[in-house]
Request: fold
Amino acid sequence: MSPTRRLPPDFSHSAAYPLFAFDAAAGRGWVLHFEPADYRRASFLDQRALHHRNIRGWELPLAEIEAALAPPPATAPLHWIFHIGHCGSSLVSRLLDTLDPVLGLREPLPLLSLAQAPDDPATQAWQGPVLRLLNRRFADDQVVLIKPTSTVTTLAARLLARVPGRACLLWIDLRSWLATMLRDDGLRDGSLAGETLRLAEFGRDGLPAAAGDGARLARLWLAEQLRWRRLNADPALAGRLIDLDFAAVLADPAARTAELATHYGLAVPADWAARIAASRLLDRYAKDHNQAYDAAARERELAAAARAHAAQIEAGLAWAESALAGLDAESLRPRLGL
Reply:
């Protein structure tokens, strides 16, 4: 990617030029040239989205990117699928992608960079440009629906305050989430590596101490539920938020995704159930279409993990039960999966 000062004239409003990443310390960003199909195929808008063809781009200073965005376009809504991680969010995003007006963006790197350094002025200087760059389309009637990395949920309040739009929190019950995360060392370690960041807003005494992987993971799960409860209590966000149990999606994909689409202001076609069936998305792993994976395979995998990690799962559930009692959060008990 060679430096250039020749951004296309439609840069300010076309989704054809995503901001791939930025270096806050250097004050530079990398802009690519995408086709609509590049977005549709990408489960992650990171290096994995670049290997299928030769994708060109530009390396630019922040000031030049901002200049190319001026004057700012009319503010349009950005919609969000926030989630707790490894809970079916890629599948839900891809299902909604089959609605014609949707432009689905899955896990853009710039949002993760913002989330990882929430108090760094050099990083947060990119927040406005990042949101404006995400809020571009290939056609005026498109609806931008972003599924960020789970860590970005820590920025949900900031993001929703900056741009109009609606959001969902997708989750699974704690028992299932513990089995999911404990089945793979990489998933467990990756989640626990973000512990400090995910718990920061709760302060030193906000959540009880947790010892052992099961309890520590349970604390992260509970932090996301409490974070969403706080957002739901904000009058400024009234009517903009819902949450959704992924188990309900698996039980009735057409009905639950139709409700979610309606929340985002999307029209649901009469043949929605048939369209979902024809997509074969429910039969494949959402992050890798070459891999067969359906609800039955998921249940077998979770059952095996539940047997293999029974002690840690029970420890996590016990921690959560105790924590709920001390946090005036008993309303979350049905979500534990006891």
